[in-house]
Every structure is written in structure tokens, then in C-alpha cells.
Design a protein that fits this description.
- The strands form 4 sheets. Strands 3, 7, 9, 10, 11, 12, 13 and 14 form an 8-stranded mixed β-sheet that branches.
- 22% of the residues lie in helices and 38% in strands.
- It starts with 13 loop residues before the first helix and ends with a helix.
- By secondary structure, the protein is of the alpha+beta class.
- The chain is built from 6 helices and 16 strands.
- It has one domain (14-54, 75-94, 123-259): Cathepsin B, Chain A (Alpha-Beta Complex), CATH 3.90.70.
- Helix 1 (14-31) runs antiparallel to helix 6 (243-259).
- The chain crosses the membrane at residues 240-260.
- One of its GO terms (molecular function) is cysteine-type deubiquitinase activity.
- Residues 1-216 form the USP domain.
- This is UCH domain-containing protein.
- It comes from Cephalotus follicularis.
């Protein structure tokens, strides 16, 4: 569908499929006349607008105090899990000040000793992948996630859990995937053809593989629209599609797609 590396007879890693879909949407919208023919405020790529975030890496030289920063866009943070711990502990470890000995200073040429990675720009939807395919204990995760401690900016960085993927099996390329999704103030479990409401206690006991958080401050009514002239209107006016609608169906499509992998 979106990569020659995927086959119909082989089960694929759900995270790999997710990134493949988002990258495909990014490419298709960037190449599409839907964007090229629009006004600047209308030319919004949904894939980038809703999911793309940036991490910023800082190297600090203790000798000359030279600081080098680099930014990298990403659709998800992949977090390594080494033991049973909370999601906030995992994020604290990911954004810690790290002692290194393999980078040279761009100012004086001496070895740089400190490095730190922070989230520079948060997306309306924040995706976290937990790299845990072993017998380690599960990672506990909150319904609300306060991100400012792990960011270079604290503006609009509070999130709430919207859905997550669970993997049953030892390896990412085998086993079974199913999802939990929050809709209309109720949590639901979607497992193959079964779609059942569940209580929050069950939700918090799960071993999540991919977590979807959404920003608290998203105002769907205030989001811009892009125009789609491919539909004929009786009054010959442009049909405006709110990005909030795209956002809603895109997220649910992605979550449903992950259950089929």
C-alpha cells in the first residue's frame, strides 16, 4: 500500500506501519494540488499539522562553554524500556543530561562531555512508542501527561490520553495487536470484531506499546479549513472542510488500521 517492504502474507510491526502511513500522507499532501493551489492559511498538511513534533539535542563543552544545538522532526518518540517503571520516569531518563565521550566540540575541538535531548515542538497529537519486547515489568502510564519538564518550552504542552495499542506476544513481528480508544467520555476496547466499553481501571492495567496523547488546548472549532473544489456545489461556492473533521477521521483511521496489522 505505501511501502515495497510490506507484504500481505507477513505480519508487520504496528509502529512501522503507523510511520509508513504518516510519511505517505505527508508526501501525498505535499505533492498534491490540494495544497499547491491554496492560500497560505489553507495550505496545511494534516500529517504534519497533527503529528509532527521536533526534538532538540544540545551538546555542551565544559572547556569553552560552546553549545551546539540541532533539531530533528519526528512523528513519534521511541523510548527504550529497561525495567518496570512509570512513563514519566521513562521520559525523565530520555531527557536526562548525559555524560558522553564521543563528540568533539565545534569551538575548541576538545571532547564534549554533556548532552541533552528535549522536546522542542509538541504536536496536537503526541505519539509514544515503548520499546519493550521482553519479560520486563509493564510501564505504567497516566491519563494526563504534563510535558513541560521534558520540553524546551512549556507553552501548550499538557496532554491527555486518547488511545493506545497493546501488543500480545514476545516479538513485534508476531503475536496480536488490539487497541483501547477514548470516545464520548467512555473507554472502549477494540479487538478484532469486538468493540466493548471498559472501565478506567482496566485501561490503566494494560501494557501499552504505542500511546496516543492529545493536547488539552486543541480547539477544533478554531482550526482553519482548506478548500476542496473536487466537489460540485449547486451554488458554485467552494466547499470548506474543517481540519478538525480531518483530524477526527484520521486519528480513528490510524487506530483502526493498527488493529489489522
Amino acid at each position: 500500500l505505501f511501502s515495497s517492504s510490506f507484504t500481505l502474507v507477513k505480519q508487520e510491526n504496528t509502529h512501522k506501519i503507523l510511520l509508513g502511513v504518516l510519511n505517505l500522507l505527508e508526501i501525498k499532501f505535499d505533492d498534491s494540488k490540494i495544497l499547491s493551489d491554496r492560500k497560505p492559511y489553507q495550505a496545511i498538511n494534516p500529517s504534519k499539522a497533527f503529528f509532527l513534533c521536533n526534538t532538540i539535542s544540545t551538546l555542551l563543552c565544559p572547556s569553552c562553554h560552546y553549545a551546539f544545538t540541532s533539531s530533528e522532526p519526528c512523528y513519534s518518540l521511541s523510548l527504550g524500556i529497561t525495567e518496570e517503571m512509570s512513563l514519566t520516569s521513562v521520559l525523565s531518563f530520555y531527557t536526562r543530561i548525559e555524560e558522553i565521550s564521543y563528540e568533539s566540540c565545534g569551538g575548541c575541538g576538545k571532547v564534549v562531555s554533556k548532552k541533552r535531548i528535549l522536546l522542542e515542538k509538541g504536536a496536537p497529537f503526541f505519539i509514544l512508542q515503548l520499546n519493550k519486547f521482553s519479560s520486563l515489568g509493564c510501564v505504567t502510564f497516566p491519563l494526563s501527561l504534563d510535558m513541560p519538564p521534558y520540553c524546551s518550552s512549556s507553552k501548550d504542552m499538557d496532554y491527555e490520553l486518547y488511545g493506545f495499542v497493546v501488543h500480545a506476544g514476545e516479538y513485534a513481528s508476531s503475536g496480536h495487536y488490539y487497541i483501547y480508544i477514548f470516545e464520548s467520555s467512555t473507554w472502549y476496547k477494540l479487538n478484532n470484531e469486538d468493540f466493548d466499553p471498559v472501565d478506567v481501571q482496566e485501561v490503566l492495567k494494560q501494557e501499552a506499546y504505542i500511546l496516543f496523547y492529545r493536547r488539552h488546548v486543541i480547539d477544533m472549532n478554531a482550526m482553519p479549513s482548506y478548500s476542496d473544489s473536487s466537489f460540485e456545489m449547486n451554488n458554485e461556492e467552494e466547499r470548506l472542510i474543517p481540519l478538525g473533521m480531518i483530524y477526527y477521521y484520521l486519528i480513528n483511521f490510524l487506530l483502526l488500521l493498527l488493529t489489522l496489522s
